[in-house]
Structures are given as C-alpha cells and as structure tokens.
C-alpha cells in the first residue's frame, strides 16, 4: 500500500500487478488537518497508523483506512502562533518515541507510552527541514534551511552544531551501514556524506547543476544504494560504497519525493504537478503513472510492513545488477485527460553512467572541518538489521468490510 500527501489530503492506494500490468485504486482519503496543508507524513513502525503534520502546527496519528484520529501528539505549540509549522517527523523503531521539528527551530522528542516530552534540542536558528535517528536509536541528527546540522546524543545528552553548507539542506538520512554517517542533500544539487564523529564531509557529489535535490531514500535490499528525486526531473541511483552513480531515470516534471517498496521491487516518485510515477527496479522500466492530486505531492511512503496479499505479488528479490545502465527513451507526463493506465510503450527510462563523489573541477575543494571533542560513545553498535519483523512481534491484519467501515483484527 502506498500513502501520498498532497495539499490537504492523505490518500491510500492499492497497487496490484498482474501480467506486468499495474492497476491503481484509491482505497481511502482524509483531511487530517482540515484546510491546512500536510507538510510531512510517516508510517508507524508496524504500519498500523500514519503520522501527519502540517502548517497548522498539529501532529496527529490516524487510522489509514478510515482517517479517524488515534492520537494527537502535543507539540508545545503556542496558541495563535504562526511560527511553528512541523516540517519533519520520525518514529523510533524500537520504542514509542517520536521526534519532530520545523519552523519552531527545536527538535522535540515525545514518549507516546508515558505521554511526556523527553528532550528538546535547540541550536538551530532557521527552520528545521529534516531529521533522522540512527539505527541504535541513540543519536538524532537534524538539518536546517541555512545549511546547519545538529547532532544530539541521547546517551550523553550532548549536542554538536556545525554549518556544512551555504545552501539549504533539504533532507538527512543515516547510513544503514553505520551509526555515525549521514547523507544530506541541498537545494543546489549537491549530495554530502558526513562523518558525525570526525565532523567532516567525506565526499560530495553534484547530482544536478544548481537545481535542488528534493528527497533521498535508501534501497531496502542494498544499503549502499541511495536514490534521489531531483528538481530537474531525474531519479538518480548512487552507490555510496563505490562512490559512483549507477543509474539515472528521466521524467519531464520536477520530482518532489521518492519511496521504495519494502521488497525492493517497486519505486514511486511524486511530481510537482501531483502525479505519481511507478517504476519496476528489477526490469528497469516505468510501470504506471497516475494523478494523486492537482497540486505537488509533498510526500509519499510505502508501508514499512506489507500485507500478506501484497507481498505475494512481488516475491522476487532485486539485485544490484538491475541498476546497471541501460539505454531507453525518455518518459513523458500525460495530460490529465489521459487514461489512468498508461499504454504508451515508449514510457521507459533513460540511464546514464556518471562519475560520482568527486569534487567538481569548477568548485573549491572541501576543507575538513575542525574536529571537536568526541561526545559520543566509542563503542558503536553493529549495523542495523533492516528486517523490521525482528524488532516487533509479527502481526497479521485481516480487513473486514461492514457497511463501508474497515475493521482491523490483530
């Protein structure tokens, strides 16, 4: 199941694949923030709830099938304040914590089980655009509009604040192979690999020429593969270990968001015009495209756990070989009057092989930042196991329809 956030709406989509033909059906739609725009969205650990936040400063958890509120998270929002939009949020995988931040410039951590705030992290002087938690869940890192990064240790309660770019940083994610390495992107087309122990940029790549990188994701099947959605209409696959770009897909509209299905078989991208593009990573081709809204797709996310009926449809694994360069034609975006199911055989992918993680010749080489004292514990836990089933007990969801009401039996 795929969730999209665009304008006021959160929508759920059932994606079915039969004989290489994908059908898309809208399962439900809700407006969790009324007439306020949704700015960010995340599934909970077990995919039973969707967390959303918007420019109304509210953070709510709702039941996906009905849109009914399950929880309302206190945000410390001042009444009638217009300076506390929530732009980013993250659920912990091993606990009931949720962290969030935005124009209030404070990273807040809420304990859903005990209904209390645990920590507030300050230092940002501009709007927080993104945050992430490392896989041991003992560090939270966040980035802001003026290129700052704030690294917070939950064990020592210490914080490190650095400026790593003159440009706005749009997204940050932790490496799946390390608790101390983050990847972040900016609005001038650069992707950075940053070492949170030595406090320096390891590598930098220019993905697009002076145009923003709007989103970044990690392949569920290969932790070394980073996937970016770019303002110039390209989707870029970067091998962070070998430090090169291994594939590029080309669309016509600016891309706003990207997500990969948990089995690694399908990739979804949102566009600035409200369209969703679906790709088969294994076959290296476009599968389908449909309209989610008439405005830009702010975020889209596949479920972290697939229902048994969904997982049977895509049971083949994806290898890195499927990301090898192939030459095909450019994708064209259909007009709204076109059928929702694309029958254009030429809707394939353009793939390029580029040099990566090398400093461009026309840019000054990066100077390593001065290393501050190490606030973090020296014993770093082994890489996180992406198998979420090991973190929580297995649950089975059986949907029952009674008079258009969805009931989930656990």
UniProtKB/TrEMBL annotation:
SMART domains: WD40 (SM00320)
Top-level taxon of the source organism: Eukaryota
Swiss-Prot/TrEMBL GO biological process terms: microtubule nucleation; mitotic cell cycle
A GO CC term attached to the entry: ciliary basal body
Any matching Pfam family: WD40
Molecular function terms from GO: gamma-tubulin binding
InterPro entries membership: NEDD1_Spindle_Assembly, WD40/YVTN_repeat-like_dom_sf, WD40_repeat_dom_sf, WD40_rpt
Name of the featured protein: WD40 repeat-like protein
Organism: Anaeromyces robustus
């Amino acid at each position: 199941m795929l969730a999209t956030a665009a304008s006021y709406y959160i929508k759920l989509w059932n994606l079915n694949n039969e004989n290489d033909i994908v059908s898309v059906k809208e399962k439900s739609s809700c407006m969790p923030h009324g007439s306020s725009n949704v700015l960010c969205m995340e599934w909970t650990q077990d995919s039973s709830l969707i967390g959303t936040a918007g420019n109304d400063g509210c953070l709510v958890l709702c039941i996906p099938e009905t849109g009914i509120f399950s929880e309302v998270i206190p945000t410390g929002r001042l009444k009638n304040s217009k300076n506390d939009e929530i732009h980013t949020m993250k659920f912990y995988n091993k606990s009931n914590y949720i962290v969030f931040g935005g124009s209030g410039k404070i990273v807040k951590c809420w304990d859903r089980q005990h209904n209390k705030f645990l920590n507030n992290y300050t230092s940002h002087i501009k709007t927080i655009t993104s945050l992430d938690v490392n896989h041991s869940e003992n560090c939270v890192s966040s980035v802001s509009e003026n290129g700052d990064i704030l690294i917070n240790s939950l064990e020592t309660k210490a914080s490190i604040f650095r400026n790593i770019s003159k440009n706005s940083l749009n997204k940050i994610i932790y490496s799946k192979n390390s608790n101390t390495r983050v990847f972040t992107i900016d609005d001038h087309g650069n992707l950075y690999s940053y070492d949170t122990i030595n406090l320096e940029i390891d590598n930098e790549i220019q993905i697009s020429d002076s145009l923003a990188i709007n989103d970044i994701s990690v392949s569920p099947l290969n932790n070394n593969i980073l996937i970016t959605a770019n303002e110039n209409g390209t989707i870029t696959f970067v091998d962070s270990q070998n430090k090169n770009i291994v594939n590029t897909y080309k669309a016509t509209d600016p891309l706003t968001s990207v997500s990969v299905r948990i089995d690694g078989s399908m990739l979804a991208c949102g566009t600035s015009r409200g369209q969703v593009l679906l790709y088969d990573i294994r076959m290296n081709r476009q599968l389908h495209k449909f309209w989610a809204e008439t405005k830009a797709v702010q975020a889209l996310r596949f479920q972290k756990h697939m229902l048994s009926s969904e997982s049977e449809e895509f049971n083949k694994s994806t290898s890195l070989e499927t990301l090898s360069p192939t030459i095909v034609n450019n994708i064209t975006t259909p007009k709204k009057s076109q059928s929702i199911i694309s029958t254009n055989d030429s809707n394939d992918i353009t793939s390029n092989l580029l040099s990566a993680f090398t400093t461009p010749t026309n840019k000054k080489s990066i100077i390593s930042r001065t290393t501050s004292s190490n606030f973090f514990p020296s014993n770093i836990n082994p890489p996180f196991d992406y198998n979420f089933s090991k973190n929580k007990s297995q649950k089975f969801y059986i949907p029952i329809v009674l008079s258009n009401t969805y009931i989930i039996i656990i």
